[in-house]
Amino acid sequence: MATVEIYTGALCGYCVAAKRLLRSKGVVFEEIKVSFRPRRKAEMIKRASGRHTVPQVFIDGVHMGGCDELHDLDRTGDLDRRLGLAPQA
């Protein structure tokens, strides 16, 4: 299975929704909380090409985007493939 990292913030409904989607697929992920942690927030912004909102999701080190993009990937079936949950075509 893929390595998943998710940068999150306090009281973020989008973060909750993204984590819920990942958990529904049985994905174990590393949650990196950026609230009140300026170094971690700066790290996230750099890795996410300037995006500063949470969540920001990375699969195997590749930036996938935020909650909306994660759900878009799920709708197309690409999320399962990237997570290693679907057979390779």
Secondary-structure blueprint:
Layout: E1 4-8, H1 13-24, E2 29-33, H2 38-47, E3 56-59, E4 62-65, H3 67-76, H4 78-83
Parallel strand pairs: 1-2
Antiparallel strand pairs: 1-3, 3-4
Could you characterize the architecture of this molecule?
- By secondary structure, the chain is of the alpha+beta class.
- It has a single domain (4-83), classed as Glutaredoxin, CATH 3.40.30.10.
- The chain is built from four helices and four strands, in the order βαβαββαα.
- The protein has helices spanning 13-24, 38-47, 67-76, 78-83, and strands at 4-8, 29-33, 56-59, 62-65.
- Helix 1 runs parallel beside helix 3 (67-76).
- The chain is globular.
Strand order of the largest sheet: 2-1-3-4
CATH architectural grouping: 3-Layer(aba) Sandwich
CATH topology: Glutaredoxin
Helix count from the secondary structure assignment = 4
Elements, N to C (H/E) = EHEHEEHH
- Any low-confidence stretches, pLDDT <50, length ≥5? none
Radius of gyration: 13 Å
Kindly estimate the percentage of residues that lie in beta strands according to DSSP.
15-25%
Overall mean pLDDT score?
95
How far apart are the termini?
A: 17 Å
CATH class: Alpha Beta
Biggest β-sheet, characterized?
4 strands, mixed
Overall geometry comes to globular
In helices, the fraction of residues equals 40-55%
Q: What structural category characterises the helix and strand content?
A: alpha+beta
> CATH homologous superfamily - what is it?
Glutaredoxin
For the secondary structure, the number of strands is 4
What's the domain count? 1
